[in-house]
């Protein structure tokens, strides 16, 4: 069990993060937009992680924020060196984040066990499926981080489509072509309650459907409530083609969301 000793102040870590972001400043506005995107994303994931962790022990809430601050540190050198956020065209950004954490000894204020818990959560936050056999606290922190991350990736993605083209952070769409089709296998996966694999994507619409399929991978009921409150599905419906196959897929996801929220009120 984690010690419930005094909860460390995270102000030094937050200040370190601000200076870390500052160290990547670029005179190129297009580069800077992509760095700004990840800085704002990280801050929002911190807030979401704290919100989802509400009701847990103060120490666990603190770890949730620490994991959130650290999870995308690798995005900065990734974009600086490869000009992309696509891991398959560059490197695994989660592994790089864990490396940055170690290089800068960011977790020295934690116990050894907590340090390992955060390091594993950071390193695995982007895996397709949470592996079995993790220590319970680690599994819980990883699941929370993945939920918080998804909540803000949805915001980034929706805002990307709402922004005028010249203001968009270029790397947010991962370079997929904006063609009208959706791949049938991607639609089938969403309709049958499955997560979409990144490797099956051919278009930006497929990428939108992949993000919708993440709802099947949400762990905490409070995250599901935010999804409903924020109208995530409605926002995706507004940027996807208005055809029967898409509407059917979205209806399946809505049924799933409603069912899980209903179950949680019946068996809290
Ligand atoms: Fe993230």
Automatic annotation (TrEMBL):
UniProt keyword terms in alphabetical order: Hydrolase
Provenance organism: Citrifermentans bremense
Pfam families (alphabetical): HD
HD domain: residues covered: 38-154
Protein name as it appears in the record: Metal-dependent phosphohydrolase
GO MF: hydrolase activity
